[in-house]
């Protein structure tokens, strides 16, 4: 019996091993097939659409390129007459001024880095406003170096390509004649009533939160050059201090060159929360607003004062609107000691 049992038993061979492996592969294929069959009709359509989208990627790219080339040819054929005419009119209307405005950056060592960054933003604002002004001035940055230059190199590398501005490492006294210079400072007893196109007006590039009171006036006296303040008191009554940020002084002068009226220039630029009203209408501003408006910072995003805000009710609305704008502003601009008002 043992011999018969041995005859009936089949030995294990390599072929049997292969058959077992093949059986396992078949089971896996059956499992995958089962999973594929589990996909719903919607899922299969989605997979098909995705595959078609991928297959047509190059075709879409080619079509976009052809459409772009077609539009370019059409513009060239038409000559783009309207746009060209608008550009020509704009160039004719823009009349550059011979007036020179200088931002004196020699106070770099007196500022903390955070204030240097704020000065950089103010300079950017001056540059942008001058580029789109009706009568752009000749814009100078002098004593450019130190923290300011380093910050500009790190955060605004494109400054080296700025147009219509002269950025000099030298002090302004090395660039202009002494008799041409007028330092704008709110501490001066001289009131500027007219702008002399032959002069170079200097704005102190200092953001110090009033830590160095009167420093620009002292600097002008030490250098022996003329000084003056903008005629703010003659036209505007403010609930806050009259020291303005660098870009506000710059923009006021640009507005005056365009409008020829100091009061209109002031109310075009001054932030609402300064509580400014025309001289003679001081009673329209509430005392409660005075405390709220008096701030050591000016925001670029604040709405300018307009002549519609002269009345008491309108003044209240303007203060509320200005408060909302200031609340949403991410970047605050501090009052700058080195500017005139």
UniProtKB/TrEMBL annotation:
Q: Which molecular function terms from Gene Ontology are attached? A: tRNA (guanosine(9)-N1)-methyltransferase activity; tRNA binding
Q: Name one GO cellular component term.
A: nucleoplasm
Q: Which Gene3D superfamilies match?
A: 3.40.1280.30
Segments forming domain SAM-dependent MTase TRM10-type: 86-277
- In this protein, the active site sits at 208
User: Biased-composition ranges for Basic and acidic residues?
Assistant: 1-13, 316-331
Q: Which PROSITE patterns match?
A: SAM_MT_TRM10
Signal sequence bounds: none
* Ranges for region Disordered: 1-93, 277-341
Q: Which reaction(s) does its UniProt entry say it catalyses?
A: guanosine(9) in tRNA + S-adenosyl-L-methionine = N(1)-methylguanosine(9) in tRNA + S-adenosyl-L-homocysteine + H(+)
State the Gene Ontology BP annotations: tRNA N1-guanine methylation
Protein's name in the database:
tRNA methyltransferase 10 homolog A
Which species does the entry assign this protein to? Conger conger (Conger eel)
The opening ranks of the lineage are: Eukaryota, Metazoa, Chordata, Craniata, Vertebrata
């Amino acid at each position: 019996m043992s011999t018969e049992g041995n005859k009936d038993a089949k030995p294990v061979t390599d072929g049997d091993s292969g058959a077992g492996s093949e059986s396992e592969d078949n089971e896996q294929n059956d499992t995958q097939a089962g999973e594929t069959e589990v996909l719903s009709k919607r899922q299969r359509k989605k997979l098909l659409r995705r595959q078609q989208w991928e297959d047509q990627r190059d075709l879409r790219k080619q079509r976009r390129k052809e459409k772009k080339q077609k539009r370019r040819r059409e513009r060239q054929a038409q000559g783009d007459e309207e746009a060209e005419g608008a550009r020509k009119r704009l160039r004719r209307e823009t009349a550059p001024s011979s007036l020179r405005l200088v931002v004196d950056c020699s106070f770099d060592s007196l500022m903390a880095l955070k204030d240097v960054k704020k000065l950089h933003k103010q300079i950017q604002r001056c540059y942008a406003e001058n580029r789109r002004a009706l009568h752009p001035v000749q814009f100078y940055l002098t004593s450019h170096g130190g923290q300011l230059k380093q910050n500009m190199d790190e955060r605004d590398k494109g400054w080296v390509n700025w147009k219509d501005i002269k950025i000099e490492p030298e002090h302004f006294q090395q660039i202009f004649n002494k008799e041409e210079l007028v330092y704008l400072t709110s501490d001066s007893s001289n009131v500027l009533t007219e702008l002399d196109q032959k002069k170079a007006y200097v704005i102190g590039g200092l953001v110090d939160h009033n830590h160095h009171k009167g420093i620009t006036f002292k600097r002008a006296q030490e250098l022996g050059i003329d000084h003056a303040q903008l005629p703010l008191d003659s036209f505007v009554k403010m609930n806050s201090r009259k020291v303005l940020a660098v870009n506000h002084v710059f923009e006021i002068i640009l507005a005056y060159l365009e409008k020829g009226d100091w009061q209109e220039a002031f109310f075009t630029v001054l932030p609402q929360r300064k509580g400014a009203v025309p001289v003679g209408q001081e009673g329209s501003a509430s005392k409660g607003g005075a405390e709220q408006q008096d701030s050591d910072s000016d925001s670029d995003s604040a709405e300018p004062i307009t002549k519609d805000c002269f009345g008491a009710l309108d003044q209240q609305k303007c203060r509320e609107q200005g408060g909302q704008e200031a609340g949403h502003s991410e970047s605050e601009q501090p009052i700058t000691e080195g500017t005139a008002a």
